[in-house]
Prior knowledge:
This protein folds into two domains: 6-174, Vaccinia Virus protein VP39 (Rossmann fold, 3-Layer(aba) Sandwich), CATH 3.40.50; 196-254. A hairpin with a 2-residue loop joins strand 8 (150-160) and strand 9. It starts with 5 loop residues before the first strand and ends with a strand. It contains nine helices and eleven strands. The longest helix has 23 residues, at 195-217. 36% of the residues are buried. Helix content is 40%, strand content 24%. It is of the alpha/beta class. It has a seven-stranded mixed β-sheet with strand order 5-4-3-6-7-9-8, sandwiched between helices.
Amino acid sequence: MPGMGREKGRQLNEQTLSMRLERVAAHVPAGARLADIGSDHGYLPVALMRRGDITAAVAGEVADTPFRAAQRTVRDNGLQRWITVRLANGLAAIEPSDGITAISICGMGGETIRDILDSGKTRLGGQERLILQPNGGEQPLRQWLMDHHYRILSEEVLRENRFDYEIIVAERDGPVLYSPEQLYFGPLQMQARTPAFLDKWQRRLRQKQRTLNNFAKAQQAVPEATVQAIARQVWWISELLASPTVERKEQPDRL
């Protein structure tokens, strides 16, 4: 998975998180009871517990090898009393007695994170903060959040090891309505227009323009719906980058 395992010049562990995981950690509320789904080596919950930032955690893993790695990380740090490692699929790692107040899901495609949330939605009490770090597929993930009445509280883009990552923080807050463009770019990111955000979409624009050019040269006809979808995205991105001002609407419309 891109960005996982090792950063240039330093070993990643429970003491030295990647920049990406440090930014995720910054959005976990102080004193939270955290469920880290797809925890890999368990570095995030162990780091937060070592720092005294959370009071308890569940590290969930669906695969045996990372499950055992997370167990080892927790054991080596003497945190078995506070961090429970469970072999389970998605939110099945959470039990009502855990009293979870924050859920982090990192390093997967946005569609995969969406599917984890959707298949496990009966385990969501509605009070948890969601801290999500998708590797692409942000649009369908934001669509799920909107459809299930989650308001996006914070968003950011960061670039690490030549990959663009997004972090989306949301809490359930009644019906909200985002426009198609807001679902595509991120409603708060359209306002903030950070350098990392604009750089990402400049790269994406070039990629999508190349895709359209390749469609035009293709030996076989490309479905018109596919061409139109990419052309619409090129237009949206071009308009976004050409706009000199920040959107003034602070929050999405309520339904």
